[in-house]
Amino acid sequence: MRQLRYTLLLVATLLLFGNVEARQIFNLNNGWRFFFTSENSSDEARYVRIPHTWSHDAVFSLQSHQSAGNYRRSLYIPAEWKEKRIYIRFAGVQSVANLFVNGQHTGEHRGGWTAFTFDITDKVVFGGDNTVLVMVSNAFNNDVLPTSTEENLYGGIYRDVELIVTDQIAVSPAYYGTDGIIVSQKSVTADAAEGSVEVAVSSNTEQMQSITLDILSPDGYVAVTKSIKTKINTPTVTIPYTVPNPELWSPALPRLYTMRVSVGRDTVAVRTGFRNIAMDKYNRLTINGKPCRIKGVNLHHDHSVEANALSNERIRTDVETIRDMGANAIRSATAPHAQLLYNICDEAGVLVWVDTPFTQSPFLSDIAFIDSPRFRENGLQQLREIILQNANHPSVAMWGIFSLLRGGSKQLLGYITELNREAKRLDASRPTVACSNQDGDINFITDLIVWQQSVGWERGSVSDLKVWQEALTRNWSHLHSAIAYGEGGTIGEYNEDLVKRTSSQHRIPESWQRRFHEGYVKHIEDGVFWGVWLNSMFDFGSVRYRAAVRNSGLVAFDHTQRKDAFYLYRTLWNTQSPTLHIVGRNRRVRSNPRQALSLYSSYGQPTMLLNGDTLRLHQMSKAHFVTDTLTLPRISRVVAITPQQRDSVEITIGNYVEKEPLVR
Q: pTM here?
């Protein structure tokens, strides 16, 4: 009955609107039944709603269960659509998807992070019910990137599904999973923005077609109109444009234009922004000629409750948390996020680095590069989809080519060069970037390089950063360098005596993470790097670690509990909303009465009280203050005060009973 209800609802909608518009889009998230391939039958199939991942099911306790599953639903196609084109679009399926319509194989997509669209017109029955089956696998494939990653590949149809209905002559939604409109920028100045628009057109005739481009200003008026007539005999049609005196997009003033394309009766609109991204001679990233120091965070793709099937509300809340900390840039770690994230960043002026899933985990047994034709082609295919699907977003500032690859063979370097060359061919307006923890020629291929050398963790001490930066400036100043770093920290785990992390520690204390970041912000010198990237914003799921969570985030896996290190960066980075934070508030019960209390303040030196008595503070670095070592009574009320804000915490000294960590 539930399936029938979904079908009847869709039928009513389709019949009501079937002949009104040239293009119609219907959400197909409801009405699916799911069963594992290993079940051999759909008799016990469960009703699910997209977004969905089978690793989210309680039976697997949010583990990354590598398997294959089937999604099936009924789809009524009205007879009135017989002269239409019918498409089905998937915003994300992890990792390999095969689509069958009425038992006929319609297409395969290999790659779990990008959208794809299939034309199902010749497979459907008009005026009747149709069966749609999607076979999904997240099992390891040696020719589907990534072949090495820390992140869980949860599996499932984890982003939206849509039915798209168009005229026979229309802007095609089947071009690399895009909307059919790709905006390229050639030259952007205050006087003019010049470039071209690539339009993918579907047509059932060889007759000349008229294509009109309207460019709408941020205020909604038509700034430019251009029309051409052409035969549709190539995958895309190019329309050059010039916008005089454009309102430029920038992080401070994110002005957005609308590019509206009309073909026949069909009209499609996308948003974009005009801006110039470059590096100056001082190793500074510039937007429209103005320096923009990057304060960025790595953002992964899951959540403790939703796994990778993230809701729109979760995406919005995550961006709010990132902005509240004061970060101005997001790295889509490993691979791209949903389009909603980039839409939000376009509107908010947050810069984005989008990775290609050519990455390597720290586990030495992993192989990230497999020199086979199918591996090579899959990497190029995913790169093309990533760039073309996200090229219209002005917030996207750079394309990631690889991350933390080990080795420097001729074959590997040649493939990285091929990927970099393809990225520049598709989009010359943005720099390419890579994250590296290796020496050698691998660092000289992309436009920008981000060093993740783990000084003070895997080798040396945090104070060695000064020596490393001096060597980098002396020997490699011609490279456009930034830095990435991070360290684990588990809420509920504390060890103030821990001086250095060891590889045998699987639950790193939050106090060590805080000390690690305090050391880095103290020793990183301004002017050496064009940006800082923190690993990472939130803890993320990884069955490769004992607790099934990689706890390197500044916020726990629930995306709610903020660690001390979060407030350190909020104090330094958020210039709009001041911070006053007593460190160690998650540790309310302590066993040792000998304590040195610590706090962060963006107001300057605050007043700190212990049970009403004023304490002497020492400034350790910018915004970081510490008391002398004190002998605390059994119950201590600690208060920090500035003219604008107040923070307090109660600490109990007693027999410390270790609690289970709040994050697993």
A: 0.94
